[in-house]
Amino acid sequence: MEDRSIIHVDMDAFYAQIEQRDNPKLIGKPVIIGGTSSRGVVSTASYEARKYGVHSAMPIKAAKKLCPEGIYLPVNMKKYKEVSKNIHGIFTKYTNVYEPISIDEAFLDVTGKEALEIAKSIKKDIRDKLRLTASVGISINKFLAKLASEVNKPDGLTIIEKDEVLSFLRPLPITKIWGVGPKMERELNKLGIYYIEDVQNYDVEVLVSIFGKRGKELYEFSYGIDNRPVEPRIANQSIGEEETFLKDIYDMEMLLDTLKDYSFNLSKKLKENRYLARTICVKIKYSDFTIETRSMTLNIPTNDERMIYKTAKYILLNKFNINREVRLIGLTLSNLIYPDDPIQLSMDI
Ligand SMILES: [Mg+2]
Predict the structure, then answer these.
(1) I need a labelling partner for 219 at 20 to 30 A (CA). Which of 65, 105, 167, 273 fits?
(2) Does pLDDT of 2 surpass 90?
(3) Averaged confidence pLDDT in the chain
């Protein structure tokens, strides 16, 4: 397999950090986010709270014993999801080949690009635009990139180069291997295996005879081998452009010209990422700030600039009734697919 460049982005104490950002009184304090009922558990503890021994998945009751002066807040999932969406928006500036693995973690495949520069820019964007920090790891596969992001938390940036993989892995406990939980750990301990080095030195045949396919994976992970691809979830993604005019306009020619520019840019972006789009949506914000959107879904997905523009123009001329000044126009393509995805015929206008 050719060498890849994989980035793992992991937000630091995500929920707690958001609450501290939004309420400066919480900065520097032990903040614990979680279910507030008597049976609730900790979702996220701020770094200050972790010093008391509080960690996620711990019952709130236990946390309160360790840290009675902590500030306990309920989970505001709606807010965190919104921030998560903004983070994904930042990723799409660099690649659409990203795979969210939870609300605050994702892998990006940036093979052939400047991984370190991208990682630095992502951290900067997250800091500048969202006022939050992330820890980022870079390496040649998912397993190693995730390990790298854990090295310098919070606000870390760590690279594991190809030639340092084995020495990096050697001293780590086996629980650092993907999928080794307490049960597997106990079984490995029985074989005298405690560190990744011990797996490296073990007879792979024996591991396979005991653990089957999992034994082979374990052995491969111990040598830093992980061929799993980054699997983008493009179904939920969209790409778009919008622009607020310097001055509100009431000029159909200019609106169409703007849509034409957007069509050119978005077509280019689709081609770069080898996607096709099926749904085309035009958004208008009027001078009084009311917003209208209208969309069309194509029978045949496209990346063609003229097709995108033709559809956007049709939407603008036939599905809107522009009767006052326009402040902003936007064009969004969604329902993105890979060309080899099976195409379903449908038309919902
Ligand atoms: Mg995290």
Answers:
(1) 105
(2) no
(3) 92
Domain 234-337 has CATH 3.30.1490.100: yes
Fold of 1-160: Alpha-Beta Plaits (3.30.70)
User: Rounded to the nearest whole angstrom, what is the distance from the C-alpha of residue 7 to the centroid of ligand 1?
Assistant: 14
State the catalytic residues: 105
Note whether 149 and 8 are within 8 A (CB).
Answer: yes
Centre of ligand 1 to C-alpha 42, Å, is 14
C-alpha distances out from residue 216 to 1, 70, 251, 331, Å: 18, 45, 65, 49
Separation CA 92–CA 73 (nearest Å): 32
**pLDDT digit string, tens, across residues 222-243:** 999 999 888 776 656 789 999 8
**Ligand 1 centre from 207 Cα, in Å?**
32
Q: What is the CA radius of gyration of the chain?
A: 25
Element (H, E) at 219: helix 213-222
Place of tokens 């993105």: 336
- Read off the tokens for 59: 């019952």
Q: Which two tokens stand for residue 283?
A: 């958004």
Kindly report the number of other CB atoms within 10 A of residue 161's CB atom: 12
Distance of CA 52 from the midpoint of ligand 1 (Å): 19
Q: How much is the pLDDT for 347?
A: 38
Task: Specify the domain boundaries for CATH 1.10.150.20 within the chain.
Answer: 165-222
Q: What is the pTM (predicted TM-score) of this model?
A: 0.68
CATH of domain 165-222: 1.10.150.20
Tokens 């009184």 label which residue? 25
Taking the C-alpha atoms of residue 319 and residue 323, their distance in angstroms, rounded to an integer, is 13
Q: Which helix (H) or strand (E) holds 230?
A: none
CA of 130 to the centre of ligand 1 (A): 15
Domain with CATH 3.30.1490.100 in the chain: 234-337
